[in-house]
Amino acid sequence: MLRLIGAVALTLAAGTAVAQSAKIPSPPVPTKESARSINARVNAPLPADQAAMKAHVMFLASDAMRGREAGSPEFDIAAQYVAAQFYAAGLRPGGDDGGYLQKVPLIGVKLADKGNFVWTPVRGQPQTLVFGQDFAPSSNAAKPETSLQAPIVFVGYGIVAPDYKRDDYRGADVKGKIVAFVGGAPSKYDGEERAFFSSPATKARIAAEHGAIGAVQIESPRGGRGNVPVATLARSWDRDRVTWSNGKATGGTDGVPVLGTLSMGIAAKMFAGARIGWDQVRKAADSDDAAFKPVALKGTLSVAIKTETRPMPSSNVIGLLPGSDPKLKDEIVILSAHLDHIGVGAPDKAGDTINNGAEDNAIGIASLIEEARRFVSSGKPPRRTIMFLAVTAEEKGLIGSDYFANNPTVPLKSIVADVNLDMPLITYPFEDMVVFGAQRSTLGPIVERAAGSVGVSMSPDPMPEQGIFVRSDHFRFVQKGIPAVFLWPGEKGAGKAAWADFMANHYHQPSDEISQPLDWAQGVRFVTVNYTIAREIADNDERPRWNKGDYFGTYFGGYGAK
Q1: CA 14 to each of CA 25, 156, 214, 340, 504: distance values in angstroms, whole numbers, following the listed order
Q2: pLDDT single digits (tens) 122-135
Q3: Which CATH architecture has domain 12-27+34-105+315-543?
Q4: I need a surface site. Which of 24, 423, 450, 560 has the fewest CB within 10 A?
């Protein structure tokens, strides 16, 4: 499961937020189980459908896979395994050159030096900004060297959202200039929409649409999730991030380059002599619906940064089950799941360094494979074509799904829906399901019926402030106007405690492995729900459509939204 869109980490603090939102005590420290007991439990015989699902996880989450990090040899082995399972299930290849793999040209990106930022007031001498105190630079994957000198215009949050009657650029001329915005978004926004507009990538796209040539973020006076102080950012200035580049385009470069983050201290100096002062901005930020008028700052900002890249090729895995209806077979329903995890890291208390990623997301991949088998073994071909898509580099920022969405192996216009399988928790008998995105399109009633088929209800998002809908692979399809949902077993019954325990003690840790008390019967129930959803989408007379006026459907020009 991805930390946060825009490559901001969803750390264990998110686990704390889950526990707090649930208003339950911290989970107890698990008692130590002997190795003999663990082996006996893990290797106990199961019914065939449960055993098949478990077998995939035994392989994918084994120590031999070393956490399946995107770009690693172990990930490549995992991809070949999934391709073999797709073949065995009876799927046709949907990747490059008649095979199951779509090559994804991932690149590692990092700063080559600490950069150079200089603020020159209209009346005054150039002031060289201090790294780690005044600024923290950002890399620019599109260019090895970035050099800009331009006037700077403050544009508040940097958001244009007509549905919220907001235009932070109103009356501002930013063409050929650098824009500065504060981090985050108004807290009164819907959680999913707030997460989307808080992303620097979203703000960079808006800036590009208005003719800016670069952007800088200013530490938010309100702080909060995603607003990391300059000093903290500077400590990891040379850390790798990952994107894709195919020689013709680079992922995430449809906006202006976000050059770095400025401290509030230097912002106060840069606002000197402007129509409004930094103190006024700080005061305005106290409002949940903070509004800032754009203002040209009295001076120019010069920025010079150097970026290094390295190739780290990887693959998506694609299998197709052709549709049978002459009129509908060219429409495609996608079932997606991410194959990668976070690889090898620091040792835990037991000295284990391998982040096996059993729940996140070997179980999602196992579900994908078993759903393919269920479709084929049903003996009833779907009316629409179904694509089974296992993507790389979700943990790096939804990169594999972003590459596919921008370089699809089928016509993009033929894709009518995505159902995403990411980190289903199967350590308890789930009594409900949380479906992110269900209320946004005609997929909602379909999902509700599918959940009912296994005797569970749908529950609202228990943590809307986290904006989960925008933080997994399905959102790359949403950004292309395609209705999408993704499901989690919910918090009813034993669910609250199970989720709090997982997020606090196993999420993105070596202990997320098959030795957990996984209930494979729940895994089969999860497969059943998602199979039922995909089956109804594939066989319906009408294609899914966005609910009229839905925010994301309208924003991205989706079918039915207007």
Answers
A1: 15, 27, 31, 20, 9
A2: 999 999 999 999 99
A3: 3-Layer(aba) Sandwich (3.40)
A4: 24
